[in-house]
Design goal:
The radius of gyration is 18 Å and the shape is globular. It is of the alpha/beta class and 299 residues long. 40% of the residues lie in helices and 22% in strands. A 6-stranded mixed sheet has the order 7-8-9-10-11-12, with helices on both faces. It has a 4-stranded mixed sheet with strand order 2-1-5-6. A two-stranded parallel ribbon has the order 3-4.
Length: 299
């Protein structure tokens, strides 16, 4: 999607950028040195062509992106106040929501190390959720590891339907990457360690529970480790979770174990909160390395 991000809580000036959680994650991964490709649909409009230019500039393979001449590209607005940030979406009937299972290019998935999917993609339409499960089926049959972020958005679907679809997807995940707020709603649990155990009981093999300012709790089923957050002067959290996901996968692709990958991803996510928008502040691998060498650890 194309993003319009309010520059100050009291301003009417919006900074044009780009969004979409899986797109953000892929760009983060690419900036961390990974090779990445995208599967989606965009409209045959100015915003769709802007996204293609973005992905080209970020070295994202777009062989799996379809241009839909009959639908528009989604856009959204981000507003800020003392409680945080809120999103307003204009994407009902968008090109991405018209994704069908028959659109999913098996060859691209079969060539990958990881397939990353999102609960938002599952929420935007019936055909989109079918497309996500088709992609997962292709990945599992090809031995491709699945990373899944439920990224719960109750403006898109009911909690009951979200819970049903997310709980059906968790057992398929090699790397389950939820935020604590999302999984508290889905599981009905509160304590982080108990939530991680619940995820494993459902079948998730590795769980990285993102705790925001408290860092993350990482478990591979045998070992459970808390990873502290980094302290930064944050101006907005838009895209921080997406940055975490993409950076985590990039480090796994380089051979890191989940604990080292989550530590790196936490630093990358902290850095991205120091700028406006979901894409512009996503750091390079060099920036993350420099920050980790000189950055100050939080709690």
């Amino acid at each position: 999607m194309v993003e319009f991000n309010q520059t100050r809580a009291d301003a009417r000036l919006y900074l044009q950028g780009f969004g979409g959680d899986t797109s953000n994650a892929l760009i983060a991964a690419a900036r961390q040195g990974a090779r990445a490709g995208y599967i989606s649909r965009v409209g045959d409009d100015a915003h769709g062509h802007m996204l293609f230019r973005l992905w080209h500039d970020e070295h994202i393979n777009t062989d799996g992106v379809v241009i839909d001449a009959t639908a528009s590209t989604g856009i959204y607005f981000v507003n800020h106040d003392r409680q945080g940030h809120t999103f307003s979406y204009l994407r009902a009937g968008s090109a991405a929501s018209r994704m069908r299972a028959s659109d999913v290019p098996a060859r691209l998935i079969q060539q990958a190390q990881f397939l990353h999917v999102s609960g938002i993609s599952q929420a935007i339409s019936e055909s989109a959720v079918d497309s996500v499960f088709e992609a997962i089926c292709i990945a599992r049959n090809a031995g491709v590891k699945l990373a899944y972020d439920p990224n719960l958005r109750l403006t898109l679907w009911s909690l009951d339907r979200a819970r049903a679809i997310i709980v059906a997807t968790i057992p398929l995940a090699d790397h389950f990457l939820p935020s604590i707020d999302d999984v508290r709603l889905i599981s009905g649990l509160d304590e982080p360690s108990a939530i991680v155990d619940w995820c494993h009981d459902l079948g998730a093999r590795t769980v990285v529970l993102e705790l925001g300012r408290e860092g993350s709790l990482v478990s591979d089923g045998d070992r459970k480790t808390s990873i502290a957050a980094y302290t930064v002067d944050a101006v907005g959290a838009t895209g921080a979770g997406d940055c975490f996901d993409g950076s985590y996968l990039a480090r796994l692709a380089r051979g890191d174990d989940p604990f080292a990958a989550a530590r790196w991803a936490g630093a990358a996510a902290a850095l991205t909160t120091t700028g406006y928008g979901a894409v512009a502040p996503l750091p390079t691998a060099e920036q993350v390395a420099d920050f980790m060498n000189g950055g100050q650890r939080g709690r």
